[in-house]
Predict the 3D structure of the following.
Amino acid sequence: MRLSVFGHAGSYGAPGAQCSSYLVSATGTQLLLDIGNGSFSNLARQLLPGDLSAVFVSHRHHDHLADLISLYHYLSFVPGALRHPIPIYGSPETLEAIRTLVLADFGGILLPQAVRAGQAVEVGGLQVTFADADHVPGTLAARVSVDGGPSLGFTADTGPNPGLEQFFDGIDLLVGECTWLTRPDQAPAGLHMDASELASMATHSGARRLVVTHVAYPGNAVAAARLVADRFAGEVIAAFDGLAVEF
């Protein structure tokens, strides 16, 4: 299994960093986890967008779905770009937000597939299961696995969540959001994690490796990863656009 990072900035873009987007490749399947603003250019640099097997959109915020508009327009107007309709997995709340942005019924180009916590779907050779995250209504985390092979966990945006620690139990690679280095005094409860909270989630889930991502500028993933590594015994990797991890 391979993880490719097309965007790792948190909440808004940053110098040299687009917003959240992560490609999971295995068994000939190309599953995209989120497609935040700016990430389409990085995606198109690595593969033909029409070769995507499916897209999972974790929730309705622009930094996780805005470039779905770019994907839709590319597949609509570039001759031969659409090889097959691309399933778009997300909660009903997320799919409604996507419909509002695209201003269309998807026209057979994107195929909306509503999913909920506790549900599992097959995407090519990948098994994908979903769990509720502690963020806006309809936010879902995902666990991606191959029969008898490795597993990847994607926290989406979430506050500290014991349920997700159980959901990610024994995960090989956890892609974890870390919006803040330390939680600001004015920050609302939940919604996001800081470095200590992400380290705690990774530790309690028994994750083997951790990719630290979604750090809001002027913070950065390298600084966040250093703080996480002080509290988490597994391997810690700072995300950057273009990062590739084989596991």
User: Anything to note?
Assistant: The domain at 2-246 is CATH 3.60.15.10 (Metallo-beta-lactamase; Chain A). The chain has a mean pLDDT of 96. The two ends are 6 Å apart (CA to CA). The chain has one domain: 2-246.
